[in-house]
Amino acid sequence: MKKILLVTASMIALGAVAPASAADLAPQPYTKAPPYVAPTPIYNWTGFYIGGHVGGAFGGNDNVLAPGFGGGNDGVFMGGVQAGYDYQFAPSWVMGLEANYSFLDTGSSFANRGLGSVTGRLGYTWGPALLYVKGGYAWADTRFSNGFGGDGGRDGYTVGAGLEYMFTQNWSGKLEYQYYDFGTVNVSDSLGFIGSFRNDQHTIKAGLNYRFNLGGPAVARY
Predict the structure, then answer these.
(1) What is the pTM for the complete model shown?
(2) Which candidate among 8, 22, 120, 213 keeps its CA 20 to 30 Å from the CA of 167?
(3) CB of 180 within 8 A of CB of 160?
């Protein structure tokens, strides 16, 4: 009988202590989940690209070899292709190499009919935009058919600058100014020397590139 009384008393005591202990426990604090932050897209300029361009070509003030010179030198339509490779060697810097050729829409036999170049370029990028400068070797198709001397291609140099924008993962568009200088041309006919003229061209063009994104950081989906 004593054992039964002791067990009963112990159970009653434990029942009284348990609620008091539970009351002494501090409530669990509520922690709000941090807000979701979308990952910042990584724009990859590293890789090969190919593309095309259209624009206008204008001769220098003293360039009688320029398309349209006899009609006020207002310039002519141009179109062509380009291909190159870029390397993004720092978060905000890009360097590359590009080959470019443009056909000039002129029926004149006394004008440059094509412009080519192989240039290096250096650019600064922020997000999808790339501001760049370029410069290097230039060549002009000056195959005159009017009987004057100086037929054949012309070697020279070119410099330029532009803005390129990557509007999808593999496509970018650009606006570019490029200046070509082929030095002085001596013009002569069967009677002898006629004169010297500067052979230079200013071009403004809009282009579209397809980028293969080979190498470099992973590119986020747009």
Answers:
(1) 0.72
(2) 120
(3) no
